[in-house]
Amino acid sequence: MMFSGAEILVKSLLEEGVDTVFGYPGGAVLEIYDALYKSPLRHILVRHEQGAAHMADAYARATGKPGVCFATSGPGATNLVTGIATAYMDSVPLIAFTGQVTCDLLGRDSFQEVDITGITLPITKHNYLVKNVENLAQTIKEAFHIATTGRPGPVLIDIPKDVSLKKTNFNYPKTVNLRGCPSFGPGDPKRIKEAADLIMAARQPLIYAGGGVIISGAHKELQELAELADSPVTTTLMGMGGFPGIHPQALGMLGMHGTKYANCAVCECDVLIAVGARFDDRVTGKLDEFAPQAKIIHIDIDPAEIGKNIQIDIPIVGDVKQVLHEINRKLEQKKHPEWQNKIARWKEEYPLRYENGGSLKPQYVIEQIYEVTRGEAIITTEVGQNQIWAAQFYKYNNPRSFITSGGLGTMGYGLPAAIGAKVGRPDKVVIDIAGDGSIQMNIQELATAVSNDIPVIVAILNNSYLGMVRQWQELFYDGRYSHTEISGPDFAKLAEAYGAIGMRVTKPDEVRPALEQAISANKVVVIDFVVEREENALPMVPPGGCLNRMLGG
Amino acid sequence: MRHILAVLVENNPGVLTRVTGLFSRRGYNIDSLTVGRTEDANVSRMTIVVEGDDLVLDQVTKQLNKLVDVIKINDITADEYVDRELVLIKVNADPAVRGEIMQIVDIFRARIVDIGRKTLMIECTGDEGKINAIIESLKPFGIRELVRTGKVAMLRGTKMTSLCDEKEKKDNEEEK
Lengths: 553, 176
Ligand SMILES: Cc1ncc(C[n+]2csc(CCOP(=O)(O)OP(=O)(O)O)c2C)c(N)n1
Ligand SMILES: [Mg+2]
Prior knowledge:
The structure holds two protein chains of two kinds. Chain A contains 22 helices and 20 strands. By secondary structure, chain A is of the alpha/beta class. Chain A folds into three domains: 2-169, Thiamin diphosphate (ThDP)-binding fold, Pyr/PP domains (Rossmann fold), CATH 3.40.50.970; 189-349, TPP-binding domain (Rossmann fold), CATH 3.40.50; 362-530, Thiamin diphosphate (ThDP)-binding fold, Pyr/PP domains (Rossmann fold), CATH 3.40.50.970. Chain A has a six-stranded parallel sheet with strand order 3-2-4-5-7-6, sandwiched between helices. Chain A has a six-stranded parallel sheet with strand order 11-10-9-12-13-14, with helices on both faces. In chain A, strands 16-15-17-18-20-19 form a six-stranded parallel sheet, with helices on both faces. In chain A, β12 (271-275), α13 (281-284) and β13 (295-300) form a beta-alpha-beta unit. The model of chain B has no long low-confidence stretch (mean pLDDT 91). Chain B is elongated, with a radius of gyration of 19 Å. Chain B folds into two domains: 2-78, Alpha-Beta Plaits; 82-152, Alpha-Beta Plaits. Chain B is of the alpha+beta class. Chain B has helices at residues 15-25, 54-66, 95-107, 128-138, 165-175; strands spanning 2-10, 29-37, 43-51, 70-75, 81-92, 111-115, 119-126, 143-148, 152-155. Chains A and B meet through loops of A and α1 and α2 of B. Residues 382-386, 409-411, 435-438, 461, 463, 465-469 of chain A line the site of thiamine diphosphate.
């Protein structure tokens, strides 16, 4: 039997086990949408293609399965770009399908033609323009393979309209033949032995865990390592939830907005075990003063991350879960009471704190969200102070429970991300911790949530500022608030206009009842928390500074 | 330091853009890049001359390796290799100086491939030093136009940058 390219696309997705796609139709994908019409695939119609990309991305982050989005050619495709770049920076398996003008019109500045494979070259792991329907199924098979193996990442497939129309036989391939796409195992045994020996010899070990722990599903192995080595654990923004936030050995986040005690531990540790992390500048601060006393073990699946920013003593290239498993087998139970005492003193001396006066504090709102959800929700964030507070004041005990745009820092990510996460994990309460600036970047997706009955909660920490930028202006630009005071609509009314529930909270004692009501409503809810306007996200390492010299520490 | 990379890539559309795009966005300096078919119709071979210290080279190689279309990379700089470049030079050549130019051509074992009324076109192959030398020698006559192919290079002996890995390993053993 013969099938059109569009039908082959849909059938291939079903073969890959895809249940939901996020997208938006247009001229170049009419065939594909026609094939969708007859198929069991769930399609979530977004209000802006950027939303589709973020939803598919967060679906992937919440479930561990690849996310899929669709857009038409030209403006549809370019609207995906920020979403694809967001997924690329955070190593998310995303597969984006775009329509394209027919093959005979390619390269002629045709209506709604854009060279989307050219545009997305630096922000995809790989991309394809499929000019022959015979290659479509194989290409899709390869795309899923590439997106999900090794270090995951987005793959884009551009399909000219005539290719989606042409018919051919359908046999979904069972294997891929990609000689340029290596696979990685448990790491070099010699290095693993060296690492285990070094960990056993350490007196002040520290584990620095990143998003790789979550991607590889290595949270159990990580905890085992930490407990055997009696090592404290600090996580990056991407690593939140990779180690239980309430564990006595947890130090929270390190880096620019990390805890002072985590940063002190970095400065004094003698062995640093970097697991699925990449020594980002927001983490290291001044590079030559990062972990100055430590021998560094770096475990990562991407060989290019080893030695990219910092000299490594023991590099191990491999799947984090397998590598940790191998290392743990070689360890014996250690105890470092002096080191633990030192850390306990730092924790006592420099706790994360804020002044809780009469006004409504954003940190308090997040603490309440934590308590009401008992730490069991999936939290997504926007970008800015809201994101930092969400990382600091909610304790993430499970992997895939904190979903944030870490690498690109995309404002407007949180709401579509919440929707994507809720689609993937309908059993979870999903809350977007938002800023009043960021939420306005993709607020149109409220309509998507309402019309598809996807009950997410948006908790806006409304300071009427682009707060994080204002904070920098306050601290480093003598308080010249250049274009950071920002107005918004009446968010509660706006929510109602969209058919969601809107609430407005201005006093501390209203916070908890509002949250409880929002959760039990099981509807789309927007809560406008009118918070202290000029609160700062502290402590903070000034840009390019050394980790343990923090403002407000 | 300058390194010579022999890179085998899938002969897919866009592969050259992927490679050069990677160099430019990560700020690596390409000295020269050549690309052409190989004994295998599905595989092209690039010879990339890149400037940088060991750290840069390490990153270049690793980042290139991440491209799905890149199959294999060899940094052959430290090994015994043959490298060649081809140059075409159109040089001013009044009848009065033609004899002198032809002598230079002879010395470099180059060839005259075209004669115009006032110019000669010279073809020369060789390693970089030789190409630079012939260019210097012809400069005094006035070079009108010049084009160089960039370097191609290949390991000497049985060592190979090819896809028959097993065979290569075996041969290398034997050589030792
Ligand atoms: C798309 C985009 N544009 C600009 C920025 C720069 N930026 C980073 S944080 C921030 C302020 C965010 O304001 P808001 O959402 O209100 O969060 P707050 O810091 O007040 O919590 C801005 C403008 C960005 N990260 N992303
Ligand atoms: Mg704000």
